[in-house]
Amino acid sequence: MKNAAASAAMLLRSEDELGIDTTKIAIPSSSKDDCNIETKPLISRTSSYTNANSNSNRKQRRRRVVSETSLSAGSGQSDRRMGSAASDTFLITRLSFKLLRYLGVGYRWMLRFLALGCYAFLLIPGFIQVGYYYFYSNQIRRGIVYGDQPRNRLDLYLPENRNREMPVVAFVTGGAWIIGYKAWGCLLGQQLSERGIIVACIDYRNFPQGTIGDMIQDASQGISFVCNNIAAYGGDPNRIYLMGQSAGAHIASCALLQQAIKEAGEVKSTWSVSQVKAYFGLSGGYNLFNLVDHFHSRGLYRSIFLSIMEGEESLQRYSPEVMVQDPITKTAVSLLPPIVLFHGTADYSIPSDSSKSFAETLRSSGVQAECIMYEGKTHTDLFLQDPMRGGRDEMFEDLVGMIHAGNSESVAKDASEHLRRRRLVPEFMLKLARSVSPF
């Protein structure tokens, strides 16, 4: 027993001490005392365990292993979704704080930020439902890579039944050129996909990660991906529509016009303006000269705005309304598809005159253009409050009607489909949100 005690007291020598890759254990020679030590199994067995019980236990263990494997697989999928949700939430929070940092948090912005908090709180029932759909719906293909930049991703919203080729909307979201994000188009993507329309929400670099030129380049690359790859997802390459909202409407219109200018100059490209059946602009601004002072008065200060637009000397280049009047672009303008502009008359973020003026300029330049105004609608009414209200949404129905024009089956279905749109937020909360909205 003394030898056994001495053996138990001996320690392992580390790899560093021995200078070799393995660890050795010194074992003493056996003695008579050691031989007298009874060897016992690690787990004691009692005489009451029969062979039948042993077989039964083995079967139960196998069932537990299978069950635990299934639970592990489900848990792994849930963990991946939770990780993705956490990542997107972090990005959204970071973008919000970035907006405050660049706009300056003075007295005016403290009030706006407070109003924004109240506005978001009142719409939280809708945001929760839309957020759940975004992170957990099987109808969304999130984060599809279309380029080599960090923000070169897009989300695809696919209709449940894709037994035929579907029309496609390539959508560029808004966000004051600073907090744009592809998830902002989730509500529109969900509701259009329910009408048999595929939606591609294109993400792009924001300021200060990039300036307007980078944003237009990213959007153009995203449009190219949609034009060249959407057939693999059940989309009709002959029915692709381009759409943008707010700052996204400006970026998308610039991308479309710049592509037309390239084609007029016979510059090779990966997509063509002829692949876009129509352009839809929602609450957009198209003449930056007329918007600089307006944005400054609302908190998007002149110095910041000019930095986004690459200096005052670049305002003309990035003002579609000004560019289409330039005689040099006459050939390019003739290549543009039909253009439809939607705007609310009570929009104080970007005045409705912006769309009116652009439509008139396009028509005078020979482009088929239309401007549809919605009386009393604000910047967010058309894009958030009205869709969350459920039932019939005038702007949405106009949009779907234009996309489905010529398809009698889809038009007949649309006639009653709006009756099934459910409400996401109570009416009193929508009205309160509208009254406190900082937009």
What is the mean predicted local confidence, pLDDT? Answer: 82
- Main beta-sheet strand count, sense and barrel state: 8 strands, mixed
- What is the H/E string? HHHHHHEEEHEHEHEHHHHEHEHHHH
Amino- and carboxy-terminal Cα gap: 86 Å
Strand content: 5-15%
Q: List the strand order in the largest sheet.
A: 1-2-4-3-5-6-7-8
The low-pLDDT segments are: 1-50, 65-71
Please report the number of helical segments: 18
Shape: globular
Q: Kindly provide the radius of gyration, computed on alpha-carbon positions and rounded to a whole number of angstroms.
A: 31 Å
Give the beta-strand count.
8
Structural class: alpha/beta
Helix proportion: 40-55%
What is the element layout, followed by pairings?
Layout: H1 2-9, H2 15-18, H3 32-35, H4 51-103, H5 107-122, H6 124-136, E1 140-145, E2 153-157, E3 166-172, H7 186-193, E4 198-202, H8 212-229, E5 235-245, H9 247-264, E6 276-282, H10 292-297, H11 302-308, H12 320-323, H13 330-333, E7 339-344, H14 353-364, E8 369-374, H15 381-389, H16 394-403, H17 408-417, H18 427-436
Parallel strand pairs: 3-4, 3-5, 5-6, 6-7, 7-8
Antiparallel strand pairs: 1-2, 2-4
Helix pairs in contact: 5-18, 8-9, 15-18
